[in-house]
Amino acid sequence: MNALAYALMCLIWGSTWLAIKVGLDGVPPFLGAGLRFLLSAAIVGAVLAVRWRPIRLTRDDVICVLSLGVLVFWLNYAAVYWAEMRISSGLTAVLFSTMPLTTALLSRFWMRSEALGRRKLAGIAVGMMGTALLFWPDDSLGRPQAFGMLAALFASLCSSVSLVVLKRYGARSDPFVLNVLGMGLGAACLLVMSVLAERSLTVVWSRNNVVALIYLAVFGSVVAFSLYYRLVKVLDATVVSLSTLIIPIIALALGRVFLGERITPLAIAGVLTILAGVAVAIVPGRGRH
Fold first, then answer.
1. Taking all residues of the chain, what is their mean pLDDT, rounded to a whole number?
2. What is the pLDDT of residue 26?
3. Cβ(227)–Cβ(5) below 8 Å
4. pLDDT for 134-164, tens place per residue?
């Protein structure tokens, strides 16, 4: 059952990058992201209501809610949706997969909660080389694409900061409570952002973008996060973190098959180098016998 849950989580999160791309056809990015998490918050809220558990927030809970709401469900997803307006879904996923590397740096130099061993340092160095290859001057890399790639890296940084905060303050928090409040806060910020920045844009609803919105809200947010929290409790953290390598590969494959997304040979080299760097950083070496 654990293997099935793990595979399903990777498949869902690997497919969300494609779903975001489809959902953006006719819908501005901040509006699409805001509606997604508004619907997700309503679903998780309904689950909490059925559980009949009162919500009592400690100081640490409030810190976690603010971290999730502002950094993850607002800034992170605003950047991801905006990035996918300019670059492919697969490339966005790969750039976002640098999250374990930035998390390691933040844990060491900000929270001082983890040491940086040789493997992590090597992985960070290799990942930076891969990122440099992606940004290497190329005929196909224009200013919009470069800004899109920077937005994807910014999204990864926001998620890394939030993860480090959650590690410090969220050990005793109810993940469902954090999610419903964080999603609600993020949705409110995204929808306000949409009103301010996208009021002049035309919204054209279609069957495809509506299905994509529902899929992202139900499966990409509620189901996948539920699977993730379950797996964190029963599997080693390293095993769960390996999904960081699997998800962008799925995203690249789906983007190629369904949207015909292509990347240049230089970009392929950058993608492989980034994934190698993440692998070196998160896969533990053999212990001494």
1. 90
2. 97
3. yes
4. 888 676 678 899 999 999 999 999 999 998 8
Side chain identity, residue 31? L
Task: Round to whole Å and give the CA distance between 205 and 184.
Answer: 23
Q: Please state, in angstroms and rounded to a whole number, the distance separating the CA atoms of residues 30 and 199.
A: 11
Q: Can you spell out the DSSP letters for 106-158? A: HHHHTS--S---HHHHHHHHHHHHHHHHHTS--TT--HHHHHHHHHHHHHHHH
CA proximity to 21, closest of 266, 220, 191, 241:
220
In angstroms, rounded to a whole number, what is the distance separating the alpha carbons of residues 208 and 23?
A: 7
Please answer whether residues 227 and 41 qualify as being in contact, where contact means their C-beta atoms are separated by less than 8 angstroms. Answer: no
Q: What are the backbone dihedrals phi and psi of residue 198, each rounded to the nearest 5 degrees, phi first? A: -120, 15
Query: For the whole model, what pTM was predicted?
Result: 0.91
What's the rounded Cα separation, in Å, for the pair 32 and 209?
9
Token pair, residue 157, equals 């940084």
